[in-house]
Amino acid sequence: MLVFGGRSLPEVSARENSKTNLFEELKTFTDVLSVVKRDYVSDVENKKLVEGAIKGLLATLDPHSGYLDPDFYQDLQVQTKGEFGGLGIEITIKEGLLVVVAPMEGSPAEKVGVRPGDIIVKIDGKYTKEFSLVDAVKRLRGPKGSPIQISLSRKGVPELIETTIVRDNIAVRSVKSRYLGEGFGYVRVSQFMEHTADDLKTALAALRKESGSSDIRGVILDMRNNPGGLLAQAVRVSDMFLKEGVIVYTDGRVDAQKQKFFAHGKGTEPDYPIVVLVNGGSASASEIVAGALKDHGRAIILGTQTFGKGSVQTITPLENGGALTLTTALYYTKSGNSIQARGVKPDIEVEAEAVSDDSVPGVPSPLSELREEDLPGAISNPSSAGQPVKEGDAIKKINKTRTIRPNLTTIDPEKEDIQVWGHRDNQFQRALDLLKTFSVFKVSQPPST
Hints:
alpha+beta, Pdz3 Domain, 2-enoyl-CoA Hydratase, Chain A, domain 1, six-stranded mixed sheet, six-stranded antiparallel sheet, 20 strands
């Protein structure tokens, strides 16, 4: 969850506590810095040493705090507007390995056969083992038309897969929609970007027009594999479906991070049935929307438990043109539940069924679900902090049931035959069946607060 425009850097004041003194610790750092400058086998630029120290400091906090150098910060600002140069893949780091979460539909990565679950072992011949996520993204991005060589490790394939990908401008459409017939509509939100709420409103208006009625009978809101994005857009999307009450609130150490966001009656969509699709790839902003609609009784949540990223990162620009992204708060649903490392539990749990990849007959292409709690250094859920680990929990986590994600990149919701789509995507089919019999399962509206 990104919040741009953090406060200007405060003056740093050293505060003593009962255990250590900041100045004493800084002396140790300067001693190490002096030894490196004096004795290292080759001379190292001061800038490199300082940036390395900053990255190391932030990496010890949690998986989402980090240093953005000037070039990467500029790229990030461009990405939130919907277009950037690169390969078109979502990546994460698990156990030191750079893992492909999913290639974007129609992207250069998808066209050369990159699949969910592939491990990127090398980028242009350099091993990725020691790369941070920011380092990896910087190397993968680049100007349109420039080639990059990737070495992939894939389960079941003994040799590394070597492939060259030509970068392209990745124009991300955060909203896609489809009229399903009989008054029902489907909307997929793949990421929360600058214009997501406006695009969603346009898509719903188009569905209403295609239905030939002043209203629609029900909507499937698909946020599976949605990694999140801008907090303001998550609030606006939630507000479209809620008349009043708390959407989400944030709580942190600094007063400025204690905020509440409310729904308003103006511009609210009619009270038609909604089924929200989520899975382990639904994170951050998508969890805010799912959690808000669930807590208000506005929608039925269907799928598998979400990722569990319940933290807010504030981006503070630095004088050198770079920026600091720092976890400054956790967000909570209307009921006071923190999603951090826990996620949103669906009302109706439906595991995705493995479907063979069309490009390789008989070879399934699901991805084992990775969640926030699996990431090294992840912040614990506040309600479970300090609680002892129950006997057997560690073994249970290692041997936990393997869940999978549908290969959504092979399904174009705007063109796919609906019957074929339902056969290949059992979660979508279940949601559609549920909409058609929604009166049986209708959610009762709790009183707003």
